[in-house]
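debug: dumping io for the single-chain case to check the tokenizer round-trip. Nothing else runs in this session.
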Amino acid sequence: MSGYDTLLNDETGKLLVYRNWCPDTQWWLQTLVDGLDWRQSRVRVFGREHPIPRLEAWFGAAGVRYRYSGQTLEAKGWPAVVKPLVDAVCEQAGEPFNAVLANWYRTGDDKMGWHADNEPELGDNPVVASLSLGARRDFRLRRNEDRQQTITVALGEGDLLIMGGPLQHHWQHSVPKRAKAEDRINLTFRTIRQEPVGAQAPARPTR
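debug: decoded output
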């Protein structure tokens, strides 16, 4: 494992990146492509449904629930093949993550729109870890108070990005299109606080 670079550490949040953190990235990429239950979710925009421009898979510790767009997903437990990777990321980040959202960017046309990881069940100042496998893609941030203030991080094979502090209150992030990019899988690790199933679900941002 390599050391880390501090990209942001001030009153607006903390952003670290560990370069080449994960070995055997091509093996992990193919294992996740073959082994996860990938789906193309749909979002409603101005009254019309649209497929999101990527595939998703969600998994986590048994019993952890994640609610969005009128759905309640309940994890059945960690897939055995990824549990060592989950444990390693938890140790590196110092956070007991209990859920992972995987995004599969199949080509450079797949993308993620501007958003913040600010769902109520993540807590006030969540720690979110993001592991990149496959093709290099830009991870962009823009400041809420001044959208001309931006940070662009090129994330490649095995890079581990960690966001913390009040970053989700002050910054949004995205993964824009990239010409001729090949497969990339991004694993985002979260700690979801559990609430009663009947609690009102937050609206899902358009991404």
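debug: round-trip ok. The chain is about 15% helix and 40% strand.
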